[in-house]
Design a protein that fits this description.
The structure holds 2 protein chains of 2 kinds. By secondary structure, chain A is mainly β. Chain A is about 0% helix and about 55% strand. Chain A is built from no helices and 11 strands. Chain A has strands at about 5, 10-15, 20-25, 30-40, 45-50, 55-60, 65-70, 75-80, 85-95, 105, 110-115. In chain A, strand 4 (about 30-40) and strand 5 form a beta hairpin. By secondary structure, chain B is mainly β. In chain B, a hairpin with a 6-residue loop joins strand 4 (about 30-40) and strand 5. The chains are: A mainly beta, B mainly beta. Chains A and B meet through strand 5 of A and strand 4, strand 5 and strand 9 of B.
């Protein structure tokens, strides 16, 4: 069975500080990986996707970056947090290329508060 | 453009009644329409989806209807239970393997 693990569960950070969020998928080789952001009570906004190691595509520009250093690992980061970065960050994976055609399996998420 | 409109934003129903959520999309090339349920503090989970080669799909108490001509699709929950209370998101596929999400519907089932 596949499992997806996100860390940390929650973060409280100061404006201007750096951030690194992680996501690991076990039990599935070459998963398609996604980062989503959700404001409190808001909809889901896709930030990045990756179909293979070392390749990441940006969907929206939010002063964030993503990397896929290993097949099973997806990292979201920024050097300087903004207040607007607060929210719920969700990592997700899908079996085949194209989230548009396949179920997205979300991690438990990281709740970020920027003060 | 790429937008999915979802209505209503809040839906309150009595236990045992039906609940309906409606979505409309803009891209005529969209051919995949999933519905996700998100309980408070939890991650979204797929509950049902429909592809453009179908007009209706049912899984237990969940029914999805798709009208490609009108570019509309809808979720119907029959015999609602308190456990159905949650946020529901519709989505439609767009360019670059992107899902375009609706703004969500907060469903409250009153016992």
């Amino acid at each position: 069975a596949q499992t997806i693990h996100q860390w940390p569960v929650a973060e409280i950070k100061a404006v201007g500080s750096p951030l690194s969020l992680g996501c690991t998928i076990k039990g599935k080789s070459s998963p398609n990986l996604y980062w989503y952001w959700q404001a409190t009570g808001g909809t889901l906004q896709q930030l990045f996707y990756s179909i293979t190691v070392g390749q990441v595509e940006s969907v929206v520009q939010l002063n964030l970056s993503a990397s896929r250093p290993k097949d099973d690992q997806f990292i979201l980061s920024t050097e300087k947090l903004l207040l607007s970065h607060s929210g719920f960050y969700l990592c997700a994976w899908s079996r085949d290329w194209g989230a548009s055609q396949n179920t997205l399996y979300f991690g438990a998420g990281t709740r970020l508060s920027v003060l | 453009g790429e937008q999915v409109e979802q209505l209503p934003s809040i839906l309150r129903v009595q236990e045992g009644s039906s609940a309906s959520i409606n979505c409309s999309y803009e891209d005529s090339a969209s051919n995949y329409f999933p519905w996700y349920k998100q309980e408070p503090g939890e991650n979204p989970k797929l509950i049902i989806d429909i592809r453009s080669n179908m007009e209706r799909k049912q899984i237990q108490e969940l029914i999805v209807l798709l009208d490609k001509k009108a570019k509309r699709f809808s979720l119907h929950i029959t015999d609602t239970q308190p456990g159905d209370s949650a946020m529901y998101f519709c989505a439609a596929n767009g360019d670059n393997s992107k899902l375009i999400w609706g703004l969500g519907t907060s469903l409250v089932v009153n016992p």
